[in-house]
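User: Here's a chain of 217 residues. Predict its fold as tokens.
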Amino acid sequence: MRSLSTARTFGGIGSILVLLFIVPAVGVLLSIVGWILILVAVDNIAGAVGDRSIFKETLIAGILAIVGIAAGAVVALASLLRFTRLNGLTLLSGTHSLRSLNATSFTSGQVTGAGGLIVGVLVGLVLIWAFFLVSAVFLRRAFTKIATRLNVKMFATAALLYLIGAALTIVAVGLIVIFIADILMVVAFFSMPDDTTVGPPPRPDVIPPPPPQVNAV
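Assistant: Prediction complete.
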């Protein structure tokens, strides 16, 4: 008998913190802390049900999301640095210098490298989207297993919506779907049972053969 109260507490609080990603300034930090707590909760669940693949897939999902965001940010930042260098701007005084850039500056040919900047930003966003989508696939695998092992179907529903939202983030509406998925994730963690019994699966019922017939003399 393994207790799941720790997983329920950490997972529930972590999911709530993930919901706070919309908070200005500290939202990203709160979301990161929330995902760390969710990883701790999933590790506890994986140990309780005796399936370490659940934690491994969740960990892979987190790593892919981080790598995607980092790679996309690097590509976009490199394009921005190149754009500012070509136009004699600096990031330190960028706010003052960029005030002189307007629609006329671009159409009159006074600005160079604008196409490269746009392409770089788009490539960065596509990288983030691609890694985020693959990350959601691994998260769905893990949460579907949790739903089956703990008989809490809300995990599977939340993971499916998360995957759909990840696929739709390229058109922005996916962020709303992901927000709904995060809400269902909170409900799923707080719906977990207190404990679970880990053991071999029950053997199927064996029907004994019928007794031999005795012919009457």
